[in-house]
Amino acid sequence: MGIQNSPGSTLLTVADMSVITAEVRVDETDIVNVAIGQPAEVTIDALPGKTFHGEITQIGDNAIVRSTGLATTQSAASTQEAKDFKVVITLKDPPENVRPGLSTTAKITTGTARQTLSIPIQALTIRDKADLEAQKSKAPKAAAPANAPATTAKKDKEELQGVFVIRNKKAEFQVVKTGLTGTTEIEVKDGLKDGDEIITGSYKVLRTLRNGSSVKIDNSVAAKAES
Predict the structure, then answer these.
(1) Is residue 99 packed enough to be buried (19+ CB in 10 Å), middle (13-18) or exposed (0-12)?
(2) DSSP state of 3
(3) 7: pLDDT confidence band, cut at 50, 70 and 90?
(4) Cα separation of the two ends of the chain
(5) For the whole model, what pTM was predicted?
(6) Which residues are bridge partners to 65 per DSSP?
(7) 189 in helix, strand or coil?
(8) Helix (H, G, I), strand (E, B) or coil at 179
(9) Are 76 and 54 in contact (CB under 8 A)?
(10) Alpha-carbon distance 50 to 21, whole Å?
(11) CA angle, 65 then 53 then 62, to 5°
(12) Residue 23 to residues 3, 27, 30, 101, 163, Cα–Cα distance (Å)
């Protein structure tokens, strides 16, 4: 047993191996989608090639600063650094040779959608509404008055989320409403229908593609990759 200025020594640590849990950190932008009871797949670095199943049993309430590993409640000064939240996953089929302290990685299923329409994530882009309308009509966008306040232009700027659909051999911007996001695809709830041809590409290309531009479909590269 220790005293005020001298902590006590640890003789031994007893681990209860009847229940195996994995503690992972979830980014603050994703924690709002995590809930108790959601299924998760856990991989252990010491056991490569194997996946273990579990479910969320605990979600931390305090944010953890990623660079220091300390909770925000333990920090005297506010910080704008990235933050994570601790999530505890209880394994349903733990291996017999698992040991406390092993490094793990988890994939949490936050939602499931069946018989739904999905598109590649790289097809989705954000564009300014005024710019799209000006490009389609081929009319120059009117400049803001010289005496207009600086907040006016910012207020009138409206960004839209959508994809470029090929119609009559032209690229037309179509606003879409999205849902669940996977590793490579994203669910589309409204704005597209099955069979629509969309344009995929890099972020820079889709941000600069003119609305109403003529396009030529060339699937020879895709066919060569499949063969």
Answers:
(1) exposed
(2) B
(3) confident
(4) 71
(5) 0.65
(6) 83
(7) strand
(8) strand
(9) no
(10) 16
(11) 20
(12) 32, 13, 16, 10, 38
26 burial (CB, 10 Å; 0-12 / 13-18 / 19+) is: buried
Q: Is the dihedral of CA 102, 105, 111, 112 positive or negative?
A: negative
Q: Three-state DSSP class for 64?
A: strand
Structure tokens at 78: 């506010």
Distance of CA 73 to the CA centre of its chain: 26
Q: How does pLDDT run across 110-138, given as a tens digit for each residue?
A: 988 888 999 999 999 999 888 887 876 66
Q: Is the pLDDT of residue 152 over 70?
A: no
Which of the two residues, 108 and 80, has the higher pLDDT score? 108
Neighbouring-strand partners of residue 50: none
Q: Which two tokens stand for residue 24?
A: 């992972």
Integer angstrom CA distances of residue 75 from 61, 72, 83, 218: 15, 5, 13, 56
